[in-house]
């Protein structure tokens, strides 16, 4: 069975192993070795699921081994043949699969109960039903679609289309991706060439974190079976049609995305040191291990300037209300997502402004959260600028105070690495989180203060210590206005009010 395959040695170890494999006749029970520590039943089951029914499992955790029983010998043969050509991996570690001498698994009842519970749970997740009444059999419905719907929770770092392509392409050929924001959440539709690949990706990645403790993947099958992609840009891509336009009249330019092209990105990140102190991809349960160094670097880029990587830290905001907008108001709003260094309202086009943040990562984050939000009554558009920096005017030339340098501002939220502020980045919402409230300031004082900024306060709730509170305005636009007006408001006694968007509602 293995003799004819040139890849059998890479998939299954040394020559002596190969000799032994040739001697083991096919069996529906497979012996899996060299599993990483702490591996779960679910991850082992995931290896067998694309090939048919999985009817039993026995984990030998102390030995880093497992036995997996499939419903039929044919399914086991298909699985072994497949993994002879494609090295099987669990948590980014190559594992070894061979036929077992056992023809079926007999497990004691205690072990078996846990295994059967896991098998049932996996089955239920797969077909969306409640666990079957017959615990002895896991009968999987065929995957309904090659298209997955992906929602990303706790998105403290921007997740780009290229990051998704890198992660999901470990499971098969990714043909098309469309990204969008819905209900204040980043979502994506991703189409594989084969529904079985989609099923494997869903089983392995659902509930995993892309980066340490954040960017959690929630994955379902989409009702769509084919995606129609019109443009290749940083929001959508059809990998089968590189000739598609970008949609903005330019030729396709992949530098818009945070990682550039996955292969090219590795070179541009590997030369610059200093990523180690930032987010690292945890091996093991915490974060997804298939991510390459490029994505790790993207996560780390929150604290490191992306010099020369093709992503500018400068944004262009347009369709602004020129009667109302000031450099200070833009500094405060964009400062929720990054440390704003300079703001320039354009002299000949006062409804547009350049905003320079510390790095490209912060710029991506601000753009993904603020583009399309209503500010001062107008829908603001935010795009990446071609400028690398915002130039300051020469002395005495800026008589209209259109440009402001904020590089030394004490109000930067993300100066301290590891600051709690990194964990409290949320899309604009009608509910605001207030902190640093001065002793003696009550609910009525705060309601009055916030209704004076031109909005209606719908609800209010103090936290237990009364130094923090939630306040709900009647719309996201009102909350944006209140944040611009009242963040850093002097409450007296050296207490400056801190305002940010909240994920909670009251």
From TrEMBL:
Region (Disordered): 1-27, 236-259
Any one GO cellular component localisation term in the record: nucleus
UniProt record, GO biological process: mRNA processing; RNA splicing
One annotated GO molecular function: RNA binding
Cytoplasm listed as a keyword: no
Pfam families linked to this entry: RRM_1 (PF00076), RRM_5 (PF13893), RRM_8 (PF11835)
Keywords: Acetylation, mRNA processing, mRNA splicing, Phosphoprotein, Repeat, RNA-binding
Basic and acidic residues compositional bias, start-end: 15-25
CDD domains from the UniProt entry: RRM1_PTBP2, RRM2_PTBP1_like
Ranges of residues in domain RRM: 28-112, 148-224, 313-387, 430-504
Biased composition (Polar residues): 1-14
PROSITE patterns the UniProt entry points to: RRM
Gene3D superfamilies registered for this protein in UniProt: 3.30.70.330
InterPro entries, per database record: HnRNP-L/PTB (IPR006536), Nucleotide-bd_a/b_plait_sf (IPR012677), PTBP1-like_RRM2 (IPR021790), PTBP2_RRM1 (IPR035002), RBD_domain_sf (IPR035979), RRM_dom (IPR000504)
Name of the protein described by the UniProt record: Polypyrimidine tract binding protein 2b
Species: Seriola lalandi dorsalis
Taxonomic lineage of the native organism: Eukaryota, Metazoa, Chordata, Craniata, Vertebrata
């Amino acid at each position: 069975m293995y003799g004819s395959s040139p890849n059998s040695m890479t998939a299954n170890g040394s020559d002596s192993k190969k000799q032994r494999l040739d001697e083991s006749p096919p069996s529906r029970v497979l012996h899996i070795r060299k599993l990483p520590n702490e591996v779960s039943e679910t991850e082992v089951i995931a290896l067998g699921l694309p090939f048919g029914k999985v009817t039993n499992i026995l984990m030998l955790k102390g030995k880093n081994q497992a036995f997996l029983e499939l419903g039929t010998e044919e399914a086991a043969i298909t699985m072994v043949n497949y993994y002879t050509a494609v090295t099987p991996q669990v948590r980014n570690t190559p594992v070894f699969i061979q036929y077992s001498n056992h023809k079926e698994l007999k497990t004691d009842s205690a072990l078996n109960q846990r295994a059967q519970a896991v098998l049932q749970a996996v089955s239920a997740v797969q077909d969306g039903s409640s666990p079957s009444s017959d615990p002895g059999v896991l009968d999987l419905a065929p995957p309904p679609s090659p298209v997955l719907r992906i929602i990303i929770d706790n998105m403290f770092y921007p997740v780009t289309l290229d990051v998704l392509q890198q992660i999901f392409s470990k499971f098969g050929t990714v043909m098309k991706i469309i990204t969008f924001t819905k209900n204040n959440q980043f979502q994506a539709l991703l189409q594989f060439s084969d529904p079985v690949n989609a099923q494997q990706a869903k089983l392995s990645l659902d509930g995993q974190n892309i980066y340490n403790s954040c960017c959690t993947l929630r994955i379902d099958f989409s009702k769509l079976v084919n995606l129609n992609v019109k443009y290749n840009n940083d929001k959508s891509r059809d990998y089968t049609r590189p000739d598609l336009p970008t949609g903005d009249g330019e030729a396709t330019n992949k530098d818009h995305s945070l990682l550039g092209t996955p292969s090219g990105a590795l070179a541009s990140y590997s030369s610059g040191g200093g990523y180690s102190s930032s987010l690292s991809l945890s091996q093991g349960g915490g974060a997804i291990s298939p991510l390459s160094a490029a994505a790790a670097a993207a996560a780390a880029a929150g604290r490191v300037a992306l010099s020369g990587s093709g992503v500018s830290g400068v944004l262009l905001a347009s369709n602004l209300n020129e009667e109302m907008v000031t450099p200070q108001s833009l500094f405060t709003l964009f400062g929720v997502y990054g440390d704003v260094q300079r703001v320039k309202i354009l002299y000949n086009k006062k409804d547009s402004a350049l905003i320079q943040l510390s790095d490209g990562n912060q710029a991506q984050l601000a753009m993904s959260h603020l583009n399309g939000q209503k500010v001062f009554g107008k829908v603001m558009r935010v795009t990446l600028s071609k400028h690398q920096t915002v130039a300051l005017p020469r002395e005495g030339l800026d008589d209209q105070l259109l440009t402001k340098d904020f590089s030394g501002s004490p109000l930067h939220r993300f100066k301290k690495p590891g600051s709690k502020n990194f964990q409290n980045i949320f899309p604009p919402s009608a509910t605001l989180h207030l902190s640093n409230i001065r002793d003696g300031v009550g609910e009525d004082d705060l309601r009055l203060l916030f209704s004076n900024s031109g909005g209606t306060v719908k609800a209010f709730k103090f936290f237990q210590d009364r130094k923090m509170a939630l306040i709900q305005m009647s719309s996201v636009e009102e909350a944006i206005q209140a944040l611009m007006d009242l963040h850093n408001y002097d409450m007296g006694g050296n207490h400056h009010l801190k305002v940010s968007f909240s994920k909670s509602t009251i």
